[in-house]
Amino acid sequence: MPKNINITGYILLTVFLLLMPVYAEGDYNYRLGDVNKDGSIDIADVVYLFKHRDLDIEDGDLNADNSIDIADVVYLFVNYQKMREPIHYAQNIKITYYDEYGNEVNPYNGEKYAYKIVEDATGQRFLLKNESQPIPSWAEGKYDKVINIPLKNVVVMSSTHIALMEPLNDDGSVIGSVKGIMWGGKYTWYFDDIKKGLSDGSIIDVGSSYSPNYELITNISPQVVFVYPGYSGDAIIEKCKELNLTYFADAEYLEDSYLARCEWVKMFAAFYNKEDIASKYFTRIEKRALNVKRLTRNCDRPLVAWGKNYPTWGGTWVPRAQSYVAKGIVDDCKGDYIFKDIPGTGSECISYETFAERAKDADVWVVPSSTAWLSNFKEDHPGYENFKAVQNGRLFCLSDDYWQLGLMNTDEVLMDLATILHPDVFKGRTTHYFLKYNPNDNTAMPYTAE
Question: For the Dockerin domain, which residue ranges apply (predicted)?
Answer without folding.
Answer: 28-87
